[in-house]
Structures are given as C-alpha cells and as structure tokens.
Amino acid sequence: MTRASEKKEFPLSMRLPEADIAIIDRAARLRGRSRTDFVRDAAVRAAEEALMDRAPIRMNAEDFAAFMAAVAAPASPVPEMVEIMRRPAPWDAGGRDS
Hints:
By secondary structure, the protein is mainly α. It has 4 helices and no strands. The mean pLDDT is about 90.
C-alpha cells in the first residue's frame, strides 16, 4: 500500500454505562446510523461548537459600528414569523387567540 492511499484513522475507546449505550443506540437507530457514526458525528459537532465559542470575531471599526447599530436598533416584526405564530398549534385543537 502506498503512503498516499493509507487511511488516516485512529481508534477511540470509551467505557460507558449501559444506560448511556442504550440511549445512544436508540438515537442512532432513529437516525438510521450505526453507533460509531452517530457518536463520531455528535463528538465532532460538539468539538466544533466548543472551538467556535472561543473563536474571535474580527472586523474593522466601520463594520463594528454597523453591527452595533443593527443590534441596538428596535426590533421589527418578520411577517412570516407573525403568520406562523398565529397558526394553531398542532396539539391545540382550539387554536390560539389572534
């Protein structure tokens, strides 16, 4: 096997309580995934979130002023959201008062 075609995968082993395995397996089945795929995706997603929480956001003074103005501006309704909120909830047979 040439160096270019070698897989770059590394094993990861964990000891988990039976209850944790049961809930992971149930969720993986619901998603149609293997336990390994489900856990790998969840772990990578959690790692990316943790890294993004710590990533600095850089912008120049003009862009920062525009950002602050947008954040400080009064909220305005989004017509699509207003319409959605007026719909009756699926579990509420009577609907909401408009």
